[in-house]
Amino acid sequence: MTTKQPPPLMKKHSQTDLVSRLKTRKILGVGGEDDDGEVHRSKISQVLGNEIKFAMREPLGLRVWQFVSAIIFSGVAIMALTFPDQLYDAVFEEASVNSKTPIRLYGGALLSISLIMWNALYTAEKVIIRWTLLTEACYFGIQFLVTTITLVETGQASLGAALLLFSRVLFVCISIYYYYQVGRRPKKM
After folding, report:
1. CB atoms near residue 86 (< 10 Å)
2. Cα distance between residue 99 and residue 109, in whole Å
3. Closest residue by Cα to residue 144 from 119, 117, 114, 164
4. Which residue in 140, 142, 129 sits closest to 178, CA to CA?
5. How sure is the predictor about 31, in pLDDT bands with cuts at 50, 70 and 90?
6. What pLDDT shows up at residue 35?
7. Residue 114 CB coordination number (10 Å)
8. What angle do CA 160, 165, 167 make, to 5 degrees?
9. CA 75 to chain centroid
10. Which of 11, 33, 62, 187 is the most buried (most CB within 10 A)?
11. What is residue 147's DSSP assignment?
12. Would the pTM of this model clear 0.70, i.e. be above it?
């Protein structure tokens, strides 16, 4: 009783055949251009999204703005946590602080947002960058409105408040500009 030896393992010829591979990729729907002009190398990148192209086409100055924003948020947060009286006095001159707790809570909230800003600095994901830019624009816009209403109610006008309001309008414009630039579709070549 002799047992037959199984035949040696051989590669399937169709896997090495270029035409067969191209047919398989076409059936899977990969390798071709999609509606957005992106070429996906695998079904996984097609489903999950491919953000590699974005790393090469960032708007000029985006990373610098993200870095400056993270520093601004961190600096104001640390100042609000450690020196709440001085922060309040810089905007509303000749006004006394009744309680330091709200200013310190404001500092804690800003510190939390600054952590998000620092993390967004190291990502290449368009969605995350856009959300942080939208967060910045909303924060600066709301701060502008609240400060303006408070100054009108109290009837106080100071150079510090004017500089704060001007800087907030400028920061909203910069954040919105980058928000739209990051969301823009790349030009097809």
Report:
1. 12
2. 17
3. 164
4. 129
5. low
6. 58
7. 20
8. 95
9. 19
10. 62
11. H
12. no
| pLDDT given for residue 76 in this prediction | 92
Contact 49, 43 (CB under 8 A): no
Show the tokens assigned to 57: 């086409």
pLDDT computed for residue 113 by the predictor: 94
Q: Per residue, what are the HEC states of 112-138?
A: HHHHHHHHHCCCCCHHHHHHHHHHHHH
Other beta carbons within 10 angstroms of residue 103's beta carbon come to 19
Per-residue confidence band for 157, with pLDDT thresholds at 50, 70 and 90 = confident
Residue from 135, 163, 112 nearest 66 by CA: 135
Q: Is residue 117 within 8 Å of residue 110, measured between CB atoms?
A: no
What does the block give as tokens for 75?
Answer: 């600096």
Structure tokens at 113: 């947002």
